[in-house]
Amino acid sequence: MLAVVPPPVTVRVPAKVNLHLSVGDVRPDGYHELVTVFQALSLTDEVTVAVTEDPGVEVYGEGEGSVPTGANNLAWKAAQALAAHVGKADGESKVRVVLRKGIPVAGGMAGGSADAAATLVGLASLWKLDISRDELAGIAAKLGSDVPFALYGGTALGTGRGEQLVPVLSRHTFHWVLAFDQRGLSTPRVFGELDKLREEGSPPRIGSHTPVVEALASGDPRQLALLLGNDLQAAAVSLRPGLRRTLRAGVNAGALAGTVSGSGPTCAFLCADAQSAVEVAAELSGAGVCRTVRVAHGPVPGARLVGGDDAPRPSPPRVHA
Ligand SMILES: C[C@](O)(CO)[C@H](O)COP(=O)(O)OP(=O)(O)OC[C@H]1O[C@@H](n2ccc(N)nc2=O)[C@H](O)[C@@H]1O
Ligand SMILES: Nc1ncnc2c1ncn2[C@@H]1O[C@H](COP(=O)(O)OP(=O)(O)OP(=O)(O)O)[C@@H](O)[C@H]1O
Question: Is residue 64 located within the same domain as residue 153?
Answer without folding.
Answer: yes
